[in-house]
Structure formats: C-alpha cells, structure tokens
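quick one before i forget lol
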Amino acid sequence: MISVKQTIKEVSKACNVSVRTLHHYDQIGLLSPSERTDAGYRLYGEAELIRLQQILFFVNSIFRLRRLKFYWICQDLTSWKLFGSINPFYY
C-alpha cells in the first residue's frame, strides 16, 4: 500500500484551517506530523488527517483544546478513576 503524505499547506487548504493552527496543534502536542523532510517541512499521513478531523469536530463542538488533549491522554475511560475527584471536562 502506498502512503501519500501531504504538506502542511495542502492539509490547511483541504481542511480549511490555517497553517498557524496546524503549527499550534503540533506545538501543544495535539497533532504532530507523521514525519518531516530533510528541510524540516511537516508531512501528514492518513492517520493524522483522521485525527485532525476528530479535533475539528470537537473544537467546533466548543471543546477546549486542553480538554481534548486530556481526553486523548486518558483514552481508556477506566483510567479516569486514577484522577479521583478531578473532572477533566471542567478544565
């Protein structure tokens, strides 16, 4: 199977988000590129595009990015018990 990688500019145009937004998502660890070229350009694969679609869904649903990142860190719902009385959707 051939994996097609897209540049950050191609992704921003296709998903109607700014390049700066994608840089920000990378900076906060929410969406990192699958690889970088020798020149340092970000390349995104299919898995990253699916994740971006999920991010945009939640962001458009008025989720805060911190909540979303916390959710992905604690994907297993049973791990929420580790945090005791902390409500992750409060932050």
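fyi The beta strands are 6-7, 35-36, 42-44.
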